[in-house]
Design brief:
The structure is a homodimer of 481-residue chains.
Chain A: H1 12-37, H2 55-63, E1 71-74, E2 81-83, E3 85-86, E4 94-96, E5 101-106, H3 115-118, H4 123-129, E6 161-168, E7 176-186, E8 197-204, E9 221-228, E10 235-243, E11 247-248, E12 254-255, E13 282-283, E14 287-293, E15 301-302, E16 310-312, E17 323-327, E18 335-343, E19 354-355, E20 358-367, H5 369-372, E21 384-386, E22 390-396, H6 401-404, H7 409-416, H8 419-437, H9 442-452, E23 453-459, E24 466-472
């Protein structure tokens, strides 16, 4: 019998719809049970000395949350995503309480690099990418003019498909939002020939750090990678690559380069090369390039440059088991998730990672301003990452570019970044962290940073370049502070 | 009975000399037996697919070496070190054959920050640092004027005490020298109160990246760290710190800042603060900041900026178990070792690591130009690091600053560096490595770099700033290339 995978079956469409529904339910159910299995809400009050949340703060925050956390599921479709920007003006997609669990589907904005592998048959993705001469379901893509006709709505000033925002009840400016990444799952391909696989796209694009140095002249190259959708196989492999050719979008605009997100690539115009990276196994590092809150400084903020409320940090360590802390800038916090990656190296050299749709499950905990006073989170003015063994601080060329660069911040930032500036910012933030959280003097903090903190290049392709500073928790296991 | 540790014994001096001699013999004997235990020469021909040395190359190189490797011991004393510079003019301290094992004592140039802990009673260190009004045993410190009277001989244009050079018989320009770090041992303190301990100094100095950003105004701070000399304890702890005060050297020159290496700090002029980093455990990462060959471009080369022949790379991964590959620039290669560190973080933020004397044992293998043709080492024009699991490429702001910056290269380099430039160099070198060693096309190499290569900040304090690119070997375990 046709299980929705036999195009010759007379009832193919009905069977396929049924399969998709079953798949969706299975996915939701699986994720829910996975959450329960991991201890669910029990973790909420488990603040220990090894986290930035003191036991007293954990208790204070838990006391303000419902006794039992609720579970929410936020699918990705044309109604639940905003494309290419953050905005404090957005209508929340879901309202949650502190402590609640939310599963959020995140779609890669590069799925149209091979629609047959990453969109076709996937109801949510199909609705988001839907674009014909007469209708473009998600019309605005970017923080620019919503009616821009040169490239398309939003002007492509921002590229990430963001699911959300999630409104956290009670969240106000000055609070800190803790986001625990409980789980990540690849979004399986619906291609009948590729059951159990997931696909992603790496674009070596004009905004890459490598671009001006190319030996064989300027070109943009897409490489499609294949993953085991279960995540059991810990490596990805290249499927094929092709050079970007001018693509005419359904509205008739020609895109000579990758200058607007979600342009469908007509595979009749490109030349597939399957002789690519033979036998090379790329270790997977599933994570979200974008998790962020709405900034307060502007109504519409390009999703590309990361800032003090997070966003496009592009650190591959922001994956399963990690916890992020963000300063809340607007009422409800307005959390959105996007830019999922199957893997990325520190620097994101060529402009993108393996861009691959992923569904994440998050526990979200609100820490009120009054409660964080005197705790390690008190002076948190930047997005901070905690893993099992490490604390990571994110420095940017401009810590808050919207506030620092004035009215033209959103365009100026793209010409002003350097790794040196981002390193300076990471140094300053790590110094603050060591002095406030660990009670060190400036001299102690400076010495410790030179001998025990590793500074790495997060990315040099997101307008506001990033450097992360890593310090091991074990360093303080015995410290009195 | 006095074992050389009772200053009240009438025969103290004789007993002490005996103890030192015994200690020295014990150290040499221990290191020799450690070498034999690790398999010694058997490793020489063991080139496998997981190293850059192909089995054929290993065989060709072994065929040119003696059947049995010899063992050499190079102590550090006023006769065996050159201070602050590399030079092709130096008389070799030892001549070896390819495959030989050399144990080399390396002294930290910061030992005089606390002579009682790091010099006194240590014959070799005492001879190197010996400096009275009438005699300075190692007079030249730096690549500058050997008779400079403003700061001292050599002008302090270069600071590292380098032991060597080691002359490798048969080495010629175009060859590659493989340096395997077989072992590292802390140099124990001779202070009678601190048996079994080793000490190091961290100087937060004017050349640090942090310096202009200090909250409490400009100052240089020395922090002394204590290690377990056996290396069994995997962490260091701070002993005390003090602010640098103007120091008058034995020749009468006043050093308001740390502007000349080896100036004895008069502890009567400083204020020790022992309330420092209480309970903080710094993970140890014993390594050599400086291992390098003599460059061909100039007669005397400041030891601070790293370059294509290595030198002051300051990557903490250059420790026990690691292998370095260097392009040979002059006859005999002229390898020197110095700047030992107990630990350092990526960036070496404040200007120094935990600067701590260490004795290393190395196996040194020469690969001739004719034999490396067609192997991964063929186009090696930069210092490369191989660890058990990774290959690391070192990028610098200027890959070969001596050749690129002209006659004033040695001074100009200090004003021209940026992390951005070093990242670009690391990108280009990693691309070359992937294309030549792994046979990838430029498009494959660029994509792989974005998704599987981590770029980190090696150091931003050595004039020629560094970025390292890390790629895991397992990526290619299954590859046909």
């Amino acid at each position: 019998m046709c299980a929705g995978d036999d195009v010759n079956c007379p009832e193919f469409e009905r069977h396929r719809a049924k399969m998709r529904e079953a798949l969706g339910m299975e996915r939701r159910s699986f994720l829910k049970s996975a959450f329960v299995a991991t201890g669910g809400a029990a973790a909420l009050a488990a603040g220990t000395a090894s986290t930035l949340v003191t036991p007293a703060l954990a208790q204070a925050s838990a006391a303000k949350a419902p006794d039992q956390p609720s579970y929410h599921y936020l699918p990705a479709n044309d109604q639940t995503v905003h494309w290419g920007y953050f905005s404090k003006k957005l209508k929340p997609q879901v309202e949650i309480d502190s402590g609640d669990i939310v599963t959020i589907e995140a779609l890669t904005h590069h799925a149209n690099d091979d629609a047959s592998l990453m969109i076709k048959g996937d109801e949510g993705a199909e609705s988001v990418f839907y674009w014909t001469k007469d209708q473009k379901k998600v019309a605005r893509r970017g923080a620019g003019d919503p009616n821009d006709t040169k490239l398309g709505g939003g002007g492509g000033l921002g590229v990430h498909i963001c699911t959300g925002p999630v409104f956290v009840r009670g969240a106000e400016p000055g609070d800190v939002l803790e986001v625990r990444i409980v789980d990540t799952k690849f979004r399986p391909s619906m291609h009948p020939d590729h059951k159990g696989k997931a696909f992603g796209s790496n674009a070596a694009a004009w905004w890459g750090f490598h671009y001006k140095e190319l030996l064989d002249g300027p070109r943009e190259v897409i490489t499609i990678y294949e993953m085991d959708a279960s995540g059991a196989r810990n490596w990805a492999k290249a499927a094929y690559n092709y050079k970007w050719t001018p693509q005419t979008d359904p509205s008739g605009v020609v895109h000579k380069t990758i200058d607007y997100p979600g342009v469908p690539v007509d595979h009749a115009t490109i030349k597939k090369n399957t002789d690519v990276l033979k036998g090379v196994r790329v270790p997977i590092r599933p994570h979200f390039g974008v998790i962020g809150l709405a900034p307060k400084e502007a109504d519409y903020v390009n999703s590309i440059p990361p800032s003090y409320t997070g966003g496009n940090i592009d650190n591959w360590r922001i994956g399963k088991g990690a916890t992020m802390y963000y300063p809340v800038a607007v009422e409800g916090a307005l959390l959105s998730v996007g830019d999922p990656h199957a893997s990325q190296g520190d620097s994101e050299m060529c402009g993108t990672a393996i861009e691959c749709s992923i569904t994440g499950t998050f526990q979200i905990i609100l820490h009120k301003k009054a409660d964080i006073a005197g705790t390690p989170l008190e002076q948190l003015e930047y997005p901070m990452l905690e893993t099992k063994d490490e604390w990571l601080i994110h420095g940017f060329s401009y810590a808050n570019f919207l506030a620092e660069l004035g009215p033209n911040a959103q365009s100026d930032i793209f010409g002003k970044s350097s790794v040196d500036l981002a390193l300076k910012d990471a140094f300053k933030k790590m110094r603050t962290f060591l002095m406030t959280t660990k009670g060190l003097t400036e001299d102690e903090a400076v010495s410790l940073m030179s001998i025990a903190v590793d500074f790495g290049i997060t990315q040099v392709v997101d307008g506001n370049w990033g450097v992360h500073a890593v310090i091991k928790k074990e360093i303080f296991a015995d410290a009195s502070v």
